[in-house]
Amino acid sequence: MIELNPQYTDAYNNLGQIHYDLSRYSDAIDNFEVARSLDSQELSYQICLSYLYLLQDDIENSEKIIDVIFNNESESRIFLNHGLLMSRKGETRKAHESWTIGLQGLDLDSNWDRAIYYVFSLALGQVKEGLDNMKLLAKECHDKSVFSNALNEATIISRSPQPVEGINDLITILEMTIAQLP
Question: Quick one: how far is CA 35 from the chain centroid?
Fold first, then answer.
């Protein structure tokens, strides 16, 4: 598709998503960057990039993107990413404020969003509920990508300068769940 139409942003977006799913984060970044260069107004590319840069511990590039989109959009994922960035920078209060707002926009009928909700609930201090709910979700849901994504979120949080109570226990639950799924 790219050879036929090198300006086709959806192809780069799809390749970026495939690389993300395969944990090839540098390749995912490369494809989302091309997509963003072709369509700088598409918010989803910027959200993905800000998150991927955090996964790669590239706080500077993540911050550049979040600074541009944070005050102009109300997308739940932007608030969650902003919270991750603030957490990594040691600004816990700002992280909590952003996570609280971001959690309000999640669809708790979606296993993907429920897993994210439990990770951030734990990070906000609801440790027992976060751990217990993630264990329950692990019994109900058999989609490895749900837990892989939640593990990425938890891993970013675990790298914060201020330790988050229960985060290592949550990471263990997620790793065990992933290992048991086909």
Answer: 19
